[in-house]
Amino acid sequence: MPRTPLGALGAAALLATAALACSDASAPADGPALARSSFTDGPTVTPQNSGTTNRLIGLDALNQRVVWAAGSAGTFTVTTDGGETWRAGVVPGAEALQFRDVEAISAREAYVLSIGPGTESRIYHTTDGGATWELQFQNQNPAAFYDCFAFWNQKRGFAYSDAVAGRFPVIRTTDGETWQDIGDNLPAAQPGEAGFASSGTCTATQGGQQGWIVTGGAAEARVLATTDGGDTWTSYAIPIVQGTAGAGGLSLDFRDANRGILGGGDLERESAVLPNVARTSDGGQTWELATPTPFGAIFGLSYVNKAGLPAVVATGRLGAAWSPDEGDTWHVLEGLTDYWAVDFANQNAGWMVGGGGRIVKLEF
Fold it and tell me: For the chain, what is the largest distance between any 2 Cα atoms, rounded to a whole number of angstroms?
């Protein structure tokens, strides 16, 4: 039987109909509680008009004014005024593609990544606010399936693909224009190991050299980490639900060089409350379980303030919740379903995007 790319599996499972049943979760019974953030109330949630009705999946809040989002049917949308107005468009030649990730560089410059087998996995780049787009990379390996990418700065980044023949064909750019395969720098892949293209957050970066990839779909879910810009990578075990084609890590974020959080689930049991949140304090070398999110599988999560506070917002197709203490406790955000991605510029400027082109702004 041919391998099913986990990104494709994720897309099918994420679109399946499922019931939502969620409530606040209590703190773990053991382990010291982390310092809580200063937030005592949940965020103010304000719907905004994205300018499109196509599903939005990729999201990058560059700052409190400039935000890019992207999604199905080759769609992108951008705001330069904090979401008061959004300008949507379609990348020419990408009308049949799904953009699952976007990386914002400025109000005028951004990269988008489309998923899919073979030539459907592509990277486009704009330097004029989306008026024109350049196709920078088009995958030629029919077995590869690129899920997400991350950048250290406007010129340096990497993109992650599901495993092919025991190898991850990860690509990297150092000039913001050309992409080279660095798959030989990574550990060998397990059979079936892959990424989830659920929100463009299966990769993350910090500073100028640190980067992470979270995987699933294999016997063991892992985090692959680099501290030298992608020249070398090390594999670390993670304790969340794993061991099947639909299970593992879907999203991760870091608030500094050492402290990070990841979320996942099992897309074949999407509504089940399973061990799906873990955090690290040593740059991803070791991970400890936190409290599961009350709505089931996490598609995307984001720290509210990258400056050091431990508050986190997590979202999935079946619900959303926020935590003041890095996953010790979760509080449901009522009425927010079918939102796939979340990202914060700061505690006063965060966004969630999802089905039907919906965008909401979150302010703590």
Answer: 54
Between CA 197 and CA 77 the distance in angstroms is 19
Mean pLDDT of 238-246: 98
Please state, in angstroms and rounded to a whole number, the distance separating the CA atoms of residues 115 and 180: 18
Burial of residue 33 (CB within 10 Å: 0-12, 13-18, 19+) is: exposed
191 phi, psi to nearest 5 deg: -55, 125
- Residue carrying structure tokens 């969340």: 240
The 10s digit of each residue's pLDDT in 295-346 is 999 999 999 987 777 999 999 999 999 999 999 999 999 999 999 999 999 9
Mean pLDDT estimate for the chain = 91
pLDDT in tens, 260-298: 999 999 999 999 999 999 999 999 999 999 999 999 999
Q: Which class does domain 6-14+44-363 fall in?
A: mainly beta
Residues in the chain: 364
Domain positions in the chain? 6-14+44-363
| Number of neighbouring beta carbons within 10 Å of residue 47 | 10
With helix as H, strand as E and coil as C, how does the chain read?
A: CCCCCHHHHHHHHHCCCCCCCCCCECCCCCCCCCCCCCCCCCCEEEEEECCCCCCEEEEEECCCCCEEEEECCCEEEEECCCCCCCEEEECCCCCCCEEEEEEECCCCCEEEEEECEHHHCEEEEECCCCCCCEEEEECCCCCCEEEEEEECCCCCEEEEECCECCECCCEEECCCCCCEECHHHCCCCCCCCECCCCCCCCEEEECCCEEEEECECCCCCEEEEECCCCCCCEEEECCCCCCCCCEEEEEEEECCCCCEEEEEEEHHHCCCCCCCEEEECCCCCCCEECCCCCCCCCCEEEECCCCCCCCEEEEECCEEEEECCCCCCEEECCCCCCEEEEEEEECCEEEEEEHHHEEEEEEC
**Do 171 and 180 meet the contact criterion of CB atoms below 8 Å apart?**
yes
